[in-house]
Amino acid sequence: MAYFHKRYHPPGTPPGTLARHAIARPVPLHVRLIEYGDDHLEELHDLPVEQYKSYLSSATLTWIHVSGHVAPETMQQLGTAFDLHPLAMEDVLNAGQRPKVESYDGQLFVIVSLPMIRGAKIEVEQVSLFAGVNYVVSFCSAAEDPFAPVRQRLRSRAGHPGAGAADDLLYALLDVTIDQGFPVLERFGEQVEDLEIELLQSPGPETLRKLHEIKRELLLLRRMLWPQREILNQLVRGDYELIRDETKVYLRDCYDHTIQIMDLLETYRDMTANMLDVYLSSLSNRLNETMRVLTLIATLFIPPTFIAGVYGMNFANPDNPWAMPELRWYYGYPLVWSVMLAMVVGMLIYFRRKKWL
């Protein structure tokens, strides 16, 4: 996960400027339109942008989902068709925005973060939602379709009483986006569990690298998911004409999901921090154990080394009364060895009684 992934204009650019950004792997643009009401549902794909405006005159609800990277020209056409605010369109193109909710003359603009698992990596995509009286326009640059479950629910429950309300669809899209955090955190939970086992069995430099990587990703994920709780709180408690009281009940449930996600996130952050302390303590204990063994070996060899050094001086002059008489003893060599071994054995017994071994 990148530290900084926001696209931005050069400083001094006029607000509301729609500019093209260099993208490493652009996703082809795909537009899906669903118009539905109490008794019908119609799906269309990749219509010319100018045809979308005709659906606004109908009494049914129109949902347009734009996936892939949007060119500034296409964004301007969509903005003209749905009367989107220039600042909001700029935020759509400059992905990586902080999640937020804005109100523009009877239109709600919501930005949320969508965490996704891609192979061994976890990436976060920006989801931008515009909600009007009878339409919802959603943008997501990911190649995957995160709203396929919502589309399937609309096909199977087209006659549902709340299916024709914009705030009901807005809630459904927010709910799917926020709930994507649960499988991502489940992935983190599996990684943390594996690291705990590795930490107890055979910790090493690779374990430390994995710990730092998980801590970094959890920190960045927290920065992007934390504001979503504030967004749901604003939608529940705020005075927005497009949000009905019966929809706020479901939004409160969505708000509860954001709290659960943040609780899990904080739990995993604390666990990884504690695991890092355990790893450092384990390294310190291993170092202390190594030093203890080396000190013990050195201590055992100090007395024999002293004796060997004394008798290695070879002062054996027979006419000198201060000469070493032991050098001429018949059993001098085995006797010295016996003394040295006895000293070592005695020290081992002493160390064991002191519980140093």
Task: Describe what this molecule looks like in 3D.
The chain is 52% helix and 15% strand. With 357 residues, the chain is an alpha+beta fold. The chain folds into two domains: 30-282, 2-Layer Sandwich (Beta Polymerase, domain 2), CATH 3.30.460.20; 312-353. Strands 2-1-3-7-6-5-4 form a seven-stranded mixed beta sheet, with helices on both faces. The longest helix has 67 residues, at 245-311. The radius of gyration is 36 Å and the shape is rod-shaped. The chain starts with 29 loop residues before the first strand and ends with a helix. Mean pLDDT is 82; it is low at 158-162.
In which range does the helix fraction lie? 40-55%
* Main sheet record: 7 strands, mixed
Strand order of the biggest β-sheet: 2-1-3-7-6-5-4
Strand residues, percent: 5-15%
Shape: rod-shaped
H-E order: EEEHHEEEEHHHHHH
User: What CATH architecture of the largest domain do you see?
Assistant: 2-Layer Sandwich
Q: Whole-number average pLDDT?
A: 82
Number of helices: 8
Name of the CATH homologous superfamily of the largest domain: CorA soluble domain-like
Radius of gyration: 36 Å
Stretches with pLDDT under 50, minimum 5 residues = 158-162
Distance between the termini: 48 Å
Total beta-strand segments = 7
Number of structural units classed as domains: 2
List the helices and strands and how they pair.
Elements (H helix, E strand, L loop, with lengths): L29 E7 L4 E5 L15 E7 L4 H11 L3 H8 L6 E5 L2 E12 L2 E11 L3 E6 L7 H9 L9 H14 L1 H21 L3 H33 L7 H67 L20 H22 L4
Parallel strand pairs: 3-7
Antiparallel strand pairs: 1-2, 1-3, 4-5, 5-6, 6-7
Helix pairs in contact: 4-7, 5-6, 5-7, 6-7, 7-8
